[in-house]
Amino acid sequence: MSDNKPSNWSLYKRMWPYMKPYWWMYLLAMLCAPPTTLLTVYQPILLKRAIDDHIRVGDIAGVQSVALWYLGALLASFVLQVGFSVLMSYAALRTITRLREGVYRHTMALKQSFYDVRPTGQLLTRATNDIESLGETLTAGAVTIVLDVLLIIGILVAMFFYEPRLTLVLLCMAPVIAIILDRLRRVLRRLYLEIRESLSAVNAYLAERLQGVAVVQLYSDEARSNAEFTSRVDRYRDATVRSNIWDALIYAIMDGLTSVSVGLILWAGTGAVLAEPMNPGVLVAFVDFVGKLFRPIQEFSGKLSILQRAASALEKIFGLLDEKAFIEDGDASLATVEGHLVLKNVQFAYRDGSKVLHGIDLELHAGEVVALVGRTGSGKTTIGKLLTRAYDGYTGSITLDGVELSDLSKAAVRRSIGMVRQDVQLFPGDVRFNLALGADLTDDALMAAVDVANAGPAVEALGGLDGRVAHKGSNLSVGEAQLLSFARTIAHNPPLVILDEATASVDTMTEARIQAATDAILARKTVLVIAHRLSTIVGSDRIVVLDAGRVIEVGSHAELLEADGVYAELYQQQFAEPGEQIA
Amino acid sequence: MNAVFKFYRTHGPPHWRWYLAGVVTLLCTNFLSVRIPVYLGRAIDVIKVGGDNVQADVSFYAGVIAAMGVGIIVVRTLSRVAFFTPGRLVEAEVKRNLFAKLLRQQLPFHQTYPAGDLISRSSSDVGYVRLLAGFGAFGIVNTGIALVMAIAQMTEINAFLAAVTMVPVVLALLSVRVFIKRMFRLVHKMQKELAQLSDHVLSTYQGIATVKSFAAEEAFAERFDVTNRDYLRTSEQRADMRAIIGPILAFAATLNVFVLLYFGGPMAIRNEISVGELVAFIALTGFLAGPIRGASFLLSVFKQAEAALQRIDEVADPLPERPDLPNPVAVPTSCPELRVEHLTFAYPDAPDVPVLHDIQLVVPPGTTLGIMGATGSGKTTLVRMLTRLFNPPAGTVFVDGIDIRSLDLDGWRQSLAVVPQRAFLFSESVRDNILLGAPDDGRLEQVLTTTTMDVDIAALPQGTETLVGEAGVMLSGGQRQRTALARGLVRDHTLLVLDDVLSAVDHKTEHQLIAAMRSGGPSTSIIVTNRISAIQHADQIIMLEDGAIVQRGDHASLVLEEGLYRDIWERQSDSAA
Questions:
Q1: What ipTM is given for this predicted complex?
Q2: Are B68 and B34 in contact (CB under 8 A)?
Q3: Residue A24 has what pLDDT?
């Protein structure tokens, strides 16, 4: 357990800022500890007194008054235990609530590229399960260890006080016990690791096969799946069955050794070690002490392993909190935004080094509609991502109304540039929240935007602004979700809009609505279209054709057709056959 | 508790040897445990009386107690192993069986129970199965034996004291029940609130791009805080219950000592019992404290296990909806002819709303059928009927003249290559993902070329052996789609179904893929799409609207006909003019 203690300690230390607001709760709880210990140690002492001082001399009133003291000690310890438990759990729960909030806020601030390389399931585990497992530790593990240590010390002191030699004899057993237990735990630790790994292999497999159950069935992959699952479950089963044996042995050793110690006390206490036999009361008290001593020792190891688990959860959580992938924002703001956008020799490479933009020059005047056209991988989507500051680290210059984009504050960028995404992202909550996303917009403004975006019927079907949108918008069709996304951008009213047109197939009715909403935006804003639809391309002021991260053609639809270059080819490919029919 | 009884009746008997061994060893363990206090009491009495032989007599008792202690180590270990092992065995059995059953369940079932739900049933709920078969069985037997033996031993020493000491125990157990009940309700509430919290966090991460582009971080954090605080409040209420239940039990377990001193002390003075017997009594009540504490935990295990068993049975009991007839007909090996006759279909959850209405259709062997139609027009349902992902009504869908329902289902599926709209990749190598258990007869290479995946794979660190999916390299949307396509093409198939596969690729790739498909082996093909360019070469195109075929023909005839097809065709091409 001492293998990585220092690093564990530094992990626990980092919890302090989250514990700090509740320091008085922790303090009060800790203050409950010493009296609880004293009361526990006091009980065997009362027992000894009852036997030696009263029963042996025939003092009935005396033994009954000791009994009442005993009752008093029990009641006091009851109250202290409840108090300790309440204070400690409240403090711990509030601490992890704060930590959970901290993790959530921190992750939200991380930049897009961080999310690109991590499965959301893994992030979710950090923010929920890992923190949840900490909660139990803080309440059950870390702090009660302090109590246990106090209790062990208190009992040993009392024992020394009554019979130092006998106590020393008993302590001789300690190293033997320690060595045996340590051996057993070494075995167990390996097994626990194996159990954890095999279990997560079982769960991962289960999750994937169920998510892809349609594929499994369509391709008759059941037999292979069952065989693989069985072998994973068997590995888990074998590890747990083996760990049972060692677990049971540890438990039984602690139990049996209590009795062995009782025998030792009797033997040593009646002449073998002590010249004079002990008083029966002291013997009884010792038997009681030993029983009380073994329980915390027995639980100690369990708590240490809980701490170990907490440390690994903390390591993962702080690992996430140490992630500093933020976009560096400037602090410049723009009083009014015209929407004059200029890109000069913009180059960009993704984290993995693949260069996607090789010097882009592009200018958008206020009120213009410019369409970006190009094959998959030409870089048109990346330009949109740079403009919304989802990605940072471009070279060259991107200016909005003459100010460099990276000098602008986050708020200024978000106010000036809006984006309609291809993959519509909706959130569980009401329609109002999904449209406003926290911005201070009146219901009237929202409804006006809904109307412009042709999303009226969809919103109505949900039950108005109060209607509920399900997780990932699963209670809406793809097209309806698109329209809500249009309404969202229209409601926020940014001067410059980046429109990443959707390619998903929707029915004709919805398609017409989307077209109308698109037209509405094009008419009102400065728009950079990442274009897939012919109508949008043809109607735009200018078309910029990208290929492999470079601008290769610029011009109007007619000009570019005339030039008979890449655009003309793209256009032919996409619409050739039906076009021929027309002609 | 019916579910619990049923569970023991089903899963207990196969492991009776383990359980029998457990009962025998527990009898030994508890016998030793209740005898030790008696010998301790005798030793105390010897000391109290005094005399010449004190040391020899006490040493004898000390030896007996120590030996019993060693005996306890042996039998207690064996008893726990004997009970907990079948717990693990049953857990593994239930997990395996459940998994196999879930894999056999058809689409409607998986629509009712989403993967996340099934996962929690097969992991945390099955955990309770283990507890029932192991800890639960152990707990009942152990508590029963310990109580009977300890009370018998106490009664043998002194019946009156035995009765008095049991009073606080019974009272404590009764009062604790109230708190435990309340705690269950709170635990239940916490689970719901935690699920809500997870849902919020997950949706934030999934929609992070939108959160950021609208600078809505603060609004999301505020919503998070509300849920987070609700969860805290419930957690604190549960903590209250825990804070009371534990100390009450501890109090009850030690209250005996007060009772024994107050009533038993004077009795010892009056010599109605010996001091040693009083000490034995105190030690016996100490021994009982363990099982008592365990009893309340046991109660909570049974209660939660019952709910867990119900949740497991709910998904394990329903027979898979695959009425394979007793003598399934072998699947034809050549390209099938598909015939649909008067197919009207409504999903079981909305029997009054037919999704398909009187469909009549013949797809001759080796030809291509194109299906178009708006969202909700019944395209996907029709494909599900034709592939038998859902069973069509009897006498409506025929394969080479045989009712599709009487075909051997596994054989039928092996003759299909269905590429679904959403490509799902497992955390396996690219190779395993494409083959999915099918033999690699050298066609893998060829398929990779036709789907242009060979270029992408060359860029992967270990080629086709590269791990993909959540645990490995993340492929792009297009790469995933083409992997799924390769999955379909690599198999020996006689019916190819592309369910809106081509909308995610650009037009150039689309042309390439369609060409690749046509160059493949002979098969009957079905292409579902909204892009005219993807099906204009199909032998037959049907247009669905509200579950009915409103137009049919080939491209050349359909564009001449007034109707939906021409509208769409014009929309997709006309704006060019």
A1: 0.81
A2: no
A3: 93
